[in-house]
Amino acid sequence: MASAAEAGYLLSMRNFSVFFGGFHYPAMCPGWDAYMEASLPLSVLHTWTPLVWYGGLPAVVVAFLARVISTRLRRPRIGRVVSRVLAALLLIAFSTAPLALAVDIGVDRSCLGVWGGPEGVVLFVQGGIAPMLAALCMLAAVRTPRHRVRRLITSRPFRRGTVILAALGLLALLPAADLRNGPIGPLDHCPTGDGTRVLTGERAFLCQSRQGGAFAGVSDRDLLAYGQAACRAYTGRLEDAYAIAPICPPAATRVQASIDADEAEFQAEETRNQKVCDSSRHRPRITPVRVTLDRTFTDYGVLESFEYAGDTAEGPWEDGLLDKAQKNGLVAAGPGHVIILSHSDYDICLTLETYRRRPPLELKGWDHVVEVGYDSSTGHIELMDPISGLTDVPNLAFRGKGHYRIRVHYRSPDWKAWTPQHLLVMVYPGEGRPVAEYRVPHRQVSG
């Protein structure tokens, strides 16, 4: 009846399909591994063996008929053998998933994640429960009478066979016993570095491997054994080296070489960019109050300064000044707020000059020149990257509170050579006037 119910359930389903994308879970689950290994031959068995179709219903019917017919022919042994063979066939075809799940739960409860949690367990196991119960009922129906069982147990061949099976069972269970959870040390006091050297040692390997909750159910001993086995199998690929570098000298050497190469390339680029900034310094036409040179960068192509003159002042991202700056593509100013735009992918050779009077207008060598008026309410104009907050430039409001003019000059980078862009910012006292766009580029700068 159990198998018939399963057959009815399968026949009642139309266009049944389930997508199981797979679950990655860092745990040692021998049951799942065995089930996946057996999935291909089991699929062949289910496809080409009609006796196990429809939840094993044909096998149950054939066993029942064989039992009835053999009994009437006074040959009950034939019926019992056929029933046991068919029951074994059903157990092989349908009990793999339930037994594998039971093994995994016994070894490590976290293996439930490998099976996809409760939903995955239902998906894998529900199709085998009814046929497995039917097979057990078939075995119970043709069980050997008690006096024959007693005679079999007391026989000499059975006792010898039991001793042999017990020894083989111990040998088979030793690997499974070795999969029991061992101690897992706390992940406090993990080693740290500056990114220029590979961290080495077992502690570094364990901390790195367990980042993000990975290998939560694996003991330190087993995780180290896994890493050492991966080291022995390491073939020299950089992609495979990072995970095992702390405990694998060949992998550590490969990773360190990559880090050193990246650092050398970075330093060469820094030197080249600094030479570009040094060779293109601006020469003021009148004497400035102060000149500041800096090579900097931005995360999103924005340098800005903001100041507040009371608790009611709106925040720097609420005044719509960025939209105003994007209209001319370079600079905009509002109450307590200044924004200067540049390209976010290139370094900036930044020059800041303050003057006591209006400096001469300079257009030669610049792609874009715009001047705006600014009213400083607190006497602080300090340009910075709003994302990183980094600033190494002085206060440009050298006369404190009051009205200033801010003239910004922009020169594009060498796009192919990847050299820096240039910004020259001139600040001098002056009453606020409309935005003056002295030079318009052929192509607007985009951050």
Describe the structure.
This protein has 447 residues and is of the alpha+beta class. The chain has 13 helices and nine strands. The chain has helices spanning 2-11, 30-48, 57-72, 76-94, 96-107, 117-141, 146-153, 156-178, 202-209, 220-232, 238-241, 249-279, 321-328; strands spanning 290-296, 302-306, 331-334, 337-341, 348-354, 368-376, 402-411, 421-429, 436-439. The strands form two sheets. It has a six-stranded mixed beta sheet with strand order 1-5-8-7-6-9. Strand 3 and strand 4 form a beta hairpin.
Give the structure's gist in a few sentences.
The protein is α+β, with helices and mostly antiparallel strands and 447 residues long. The chain contains 13 helices and nine strands. Strand 3 and strand 4 (337-341) form a beta hairpin.
The strand line-up of the biggest sheet is 1-5-8-7-6-9
In CATH terms, what is the fold-level topology of the largest domain? Substrate Binding Domain Of DNAk, Chain A, domain 1
Fourth-tier CATH superfamily name of the largest domain: Competence, DNA-entry nuclease inhibitor, ComJ
Largest sheet: 6 strands, mixed
Which class best fits the helix and strand makeup? alpha+beta
Give the strand tally.
9
So, CATH architecture of the largest domain? Answer: Sandwich
Gyration radius from CA atoms, angstroms: 39 Å
Please state the overall shape, judged from the principal axes of the Cα atoms: elongated
- Distance from first to last alpha carbon: 72 Å
Q: List SSEs in N-to-C order.
A: HHHHHHHHHHHHEEHEEEEEEE
Q: Treating each run of at least 4 consecutive H or I residues as one helix, how many helices?
A: 13
> What is the average of the pLDDT values?
80
What share of the residues lie within helices? 40-55%
Strand content: 5-15%
Number of domains: 3
What is the level 1 CATH name of the largest domain?
A: Mainly Beta
The parts where pLDDT drops under 50 for at least 5 residues are 2-7, 9-26, 175-180
